[in-house]
Amino acid sequence: GESVGLHLPTLSVQEGDNSIINCAYSNSASDYFIWYKQESGKGPQFIIDIRSNMDKRQGQRVTVLLNKTVKHLSLQIAATQPGDSAVYFCAENAGGTSYGKLTFGQGTILTVHP
Amino acid sequence: GAGVSQSPSNKVTEKGKDVELRCDPISGHTALYWYRQSLGQGLEFLIYFQGNSAPDKSGLPSDRFSAERTGGSVSTLTIQRTQQEDSAVYLCASSLEWAGGEQYFGPGTRLTVT
Predict the structure, then answer these.
(1) Cα–Cα distance between B114 and B105 in angstroms, integer?
(2) Which residues of B touch A4 (CB under 8 A)?
């Protein structure tokens, strides 16, 4: 069946470095992708999204890249801060009859060392 | 304003008992979602309500699970005859209609079935 997965389950970086979190997806019908951040004991928090008609989108300190050819999604965090330490999830929506349903990946733990 | 709230925050129950989990969405949000998150895993979609439309129940894992949304606001997720594999964090989210990934999550209810 369709699935969304992450290449790296953990990522450790030094404060000030740039972080890159990767995600592979398998549903070629997915047309909308989202990155969420989840801190311990809290619900996920929306970071940034991208539609399949785009290959790059930038936010504040974050950039999402979408490569539909290889079904790959990445989240880049610039000048990573200790407050960025959390679990990061990618999610996809296939639209159509799946409207409203998000499929989440397993998550990557990002640890930022001061 | 107030975010999504869920109650109880923690629930311990004996195998075979029924449980009810409550979600209060953000006022004015017409879409409401339930997800389940097992330890160290991503989120698993359970059910989605949108306005007065029939809910998308395609993620409910068995007929022991049901959910309702009264008056287009508060939602209750009911698990009958709980099993140990039902132990997880149950997360509720709401959004303005189908607002893409900008779903606002509650803190979750941690369910432990002994």
Answers:
(1) 27
(2) 42
